[in-house]
Amino acid sequence: MSKLTMPYQCLKQCGNLLIAARGSTIETFNLESRSLVSSWKCPSSKPLVSETSAQEEVTAVESPAPAEAAPEESVIPPVKRRKLSLSETPAEENKNWKHNNKGKNHRQAAASTGLDSPAVIALAVTSNGHHVIAVTSEDKSIRVFENSYINLKHELKQLSQRTMPKRPCGLAITDDSSTIISADKFGDVFSLPLVFQETPIPSKNETPVPATTEADSVLFTPAANHLTVHSVRNRKALENQKRQAKPKPDSSGPEFEHKLLLGHVSMLTDVALHTYNGRHYIFTADRDEHIRISRGIPQAHIIEQFCLGHTDFVSRLCIPSTRPEILISGGGDDELLVWDWENGNLLSRADLKGHVEVVCHEHGKAATDGSVDGLKIAVNQIEWIMVGGEDLVVVGYEAVPALFVFQLTAANTLQHIQRIQLAGNVLSFIVNSEGVVVSVDTVHALFSSSEQRNMAEAVDVQPLSTFVFEDQRLVPGPAFEGAEQRHEVPAEELGRLGALLYGLENLRKREGDGRDED
Amino acid sequence: MSRFLFSKPRVTALLCPSTIMAGPPNKRQKREEYKTSQREDGTAELPKKKFYRQRAHANPFSDHQLTYPISPDHMDWAEYYPAFISPEPNPVSESTAVPAAPSTPKKLTRQVEVADIGCGFGGLLVSLAPELPDTLLLGMEIRAQVAEYVQERVKALRVQNSGTELYQNAGCVRANTMKFLPNFFNKSQLSKIFLCFPDPHFKARKHKARIVSTTLNSEYAYVVRPGGIVYTITDVEDLHNWMVSHFDAHLSFERVSEEEQEADKCVAIMRTETEEGKKVERNKGKKFVALFRRIENPPW
Ligand SMILES: C[S@@+](CC[C@H](N)C(=O)[O-])C[C@H]1O[C@@H](n2cnc3c(N)ncnc32)[C@H](O)[C@@H]1O
Fold first, then answer.
1. DSSP H or E stretch at residue B115
2. How many C-beta atoms surround the C-beta of residue A433 within 10 A?
3. Which residues are noted in the entry as S-adenosyl-L-methionine-binding (chain B) (predicted)?
């Protein structure tokens, strides 16, 4: 079995700390000394992995054979895994999780990788640097940590874990470090206090759900009668409703304070908070090409503007601090867009695809099957930084082994100024005025989100690379200590790891997808 | 044939045979033949519903093979309201930094101001159009066949009334309004939205598919100008209560008094002229009406 070094899926800076999520663990590095200072590991979520139920689940789902006959080493092929994670409904989510833990051997193998527990899929930090907030995937939890120091030794101390109704996929923290804003796959945005209060407080909503909706599921009365229902289908639906048992009261939502702020009928991909001219805003992006700008709390029910111009999913939003009046957005399109967001006006477009093609050629890779047109790119991160009086924007693409640096001109256009080759696909990065720390994929082949890389050539690939600014150009910087410690990934885990590291391409609508069922 | 500036070259459902309700091939063929002749004639004959029937529910959460404008400015309204095309040439795009859209749509002399969301077979639309002759009305319907029926219905009515302006102000698009309403309308563009006999989705599990919800109401508030009205009517009391409680709870709306409601001529038309309304009438059922006014946003 080849040994693969576990890569970092998500990086964030918190003061002089680098917070780095690696599978189910969060490692913390000191950015000055570039050394590992602490590590937290997500406990496995017990109820879901109970030995027998996991076995039974496998049998039920995969084959009619008795439990003992379940092929223990069988693994769902990566392709299928990705599909599952794309279309998952909450029910499927649980199933996935059970799949992932099926078979005793398999789980033992996973235990050594940090992938036996829920994986960290999003990180955020408070502006005062006191707290780190993480989303763990399979248990749909938001976890709040304190940067605590015991005898000068750093520790991420978990203060609370709250299970959300749907899996969060985007996080933001208000400037005053008081409130977590969580966007989920089902299009809703919730706020919850950073500090978890023990006493259950009934949920209130910014766009309030009237009392009757909660009551609906508890006090069950048929919603209509034969006198008030006239069409055949309505009548049928009513019949069904009458036949139905009393609905389970589990739809009442979590028992901690949380407010529904706003919602899209689409999968949310990013959420950003912004303050401009003393006003607070919430920016949300979705899979259906929308960027929505709502007022901040407590008026989040008011939509101020839409920025419409993307022709594929939007995945990342970036607002440069030096130019609070503009927004940079990217996603599945071949271009980055720059907006006068207050008026919803497009200011400029910057080609991306051309630059990615150059990287492809440098690696001797004819862009996807020889046809350049077939090359699909998806922006996985956009970060702004001011260096030497210039506004720079650093961009990463899913499954591309490079970073791209643009200069934001006075006319709000983006000019490409540098391309940085990486030893593996870019997964995540942080940028500050010193330079860049970037997480590269140690496991997958260049340009691939599923193929394993040739280990002979990958032996020396470090999961974290650094670059430092010299005259506004990035040059290679010193290495991180401790990052190379081998958290090994058994080859069978590749599928699950691929799904964790690469999800954006799944957002793309495919020809024939969701075809009319009518 | 309707045409948008495509956000990308997705096949329009109206052209794609695979999206048409699966039925015996000869039935589909008949339907196609019928539609071709209907289109070619410029006929005054009203379309026959039987050629446009479609399964009752379309899933508002799936992608479909929808076409929709990238933004309201990309929408080519001229196709829908040819009598209202502005004689002036298009003004040159203001922001010169951005390359102009491949073909800038022709401007109309006025904007769409009334939307009938989930318009079904268009009964309300064609009854309302002559009553509001100076206003552009748009039916929006997620089911491709049904939207096409309404388009043909409007065309035939225009031919029947040629020489007059009648029905020139009515149009219909196929659209999933739960996802794409802001692609069609700018902020505060509409003065009225009609939500007539929406699908009730009785089961609690399906309530998310309801066309009225706390979060969707924010989108209605975005496209409706202050003072504008959202009209609702249903025969399902529970759905009525649902809609009332959700609009009442939304800070951008206030309930219109019963007195004002009954004085509104659109209410009488809404009660009697929608297809669903007629069915309820025949069955001597009850109809529940509620109107909500978009109020000004508070300062912030
Ligand atoms: C019960 S019918 C009512 C039709 C018409 N308003 C009437 O009163 O006769 C509801 C209609 O809403 C349409 N609809 C449902 N969801 C929709 C959506 N998201 N966007 C557009 N139309 C939708 C359905 O296809 C259906 O034709």
1. strand B112-117
2. 10
3. 118, 141-142, 176-177, 196, 274-276
Q: How confident is the model at residue A51 (pLDDT cuts 50, 70, 90)?
A: very low
Question: Quick check: B69 and B175 in contact, CB under 8 A?
Answer: no
Tell me the per-residue pLDDT of A401-426, one tens digit each, with 9 for 90 and over: 999 999 999 999 999 999 999 999 99
* Residue bearing the bigger pLDDT, A338 or A96: A338
The three-class DSSP label of residue B169 is coil
CA distance A6 to chain B (A): 35
Q: How many CB pairs under 8 A join A and B?
A: 191
Q: Which residues of A touch B7 (CB under 8 A)?
A: 289, 311
Return the pLDDT at A201: 53
A-chain CB neighbours of B61 within 8 Å are 265
Per-residue CA distances from A269 to A186, A266, A485, B197 (Å): 10, 9, 32, 33
Give the percent of chain B with pLDDT over 70.
84
Q: What is the pTM of this model?
A: 0.83
**Calpha distance B164→B82 (Å, rounded):** 14
CA–centroid distance, residue B122 to ligand 1 (Å): 10
Instruction: Measure CA A154 to chain center.
Output: 26
* Pairwise CA distance, residues A291 & A351, whole Å: 19
- Judge whether A182 and A189 are in contact, CB under 8 Å: yes
Helix (H, G, I), strand (E, B) or coil at A16: coil
Per-residue DSSP letters for A40-54? Answer: EEPPP-GGG--HHHH
| Mean pLDDT, residues B142-166 taken together | 96
Question: Under a CB-based contact definition with an 8 Å cutoff, are residues B129 and B166 in contact?
Answer: yes
User: Helix, strand, or coil here: B194?
Assistant: strand
In the annotated binding site of B, the residues are 118, 141-142, 176-177, 196, 274-276
Structure tokens at B12: 């329009």
**Span A97-126, pLDDT tens digits:** 333 333 344 444 444 445 678 999 999 999
3-class SS of residue A333: coil
Tell me the pLDDT tens digit for each residue of A164-222. 999 999 999 999 999 999 999 999 999 999 998 765 555 555 554 544 333 333 323 34
Indicate yes or no: CB of A290 within 8 angstroms of CB of B182: yes
Cβ contact (<8 Å) for B180 and A288? yes
Question: Encoding tokens for residue A29?
Answer: 């590095």
Q: What is the mean pLDDT of chain B?
A: 87
Helix orientation angle between B237-249 and B214-223, rounded to the nearest 10 degrees: 70
> How far apart are the C-alpha atoms of A207 and A261, rounded to whole Å?
6
Q: Which residue has the higher pLDDT, A322 or B90?
A: A322
- Which residues of B belong to the annotated binding site for S-adenosyl-L-methionine? 118, 141-142, 176-177, 196, 274-276
What ipTM does the predicted assembly reach? 0.86
Verify whether residue B199 is a known catalytic residue: yes
- Catalytic residue chosen out of the listed positions B73, B116, B134, B199: B199
Inter-chain touch B250–A301, beta carbons under 8 Å: yes
Q: Which residues of B fall within a CB distance of 8 Å from A251?
A: 204-205
Cβ contact A517–B58 (<8 Å): yes
CB spacing of B216 vs A265 below 8 angstroms = yes
What residues does ligand 1 touch, defined as CB less than 6 Å away? B 58, 60, 118-120, 123, 140-143, 146, 175-178, 196-199, 211, 274-277
pLDDT surpassing 50 at residue B152: yes
Nearest-CA residue for atom 18 of ligand 1: B176
CB contact set of B94 (below 8 Å; sequence gap of 6+): none
Tokens representing A297? Answer: 């709390």
Q: Which CATH class is domain A3-43+116-197+258-507?
A: mainly beta
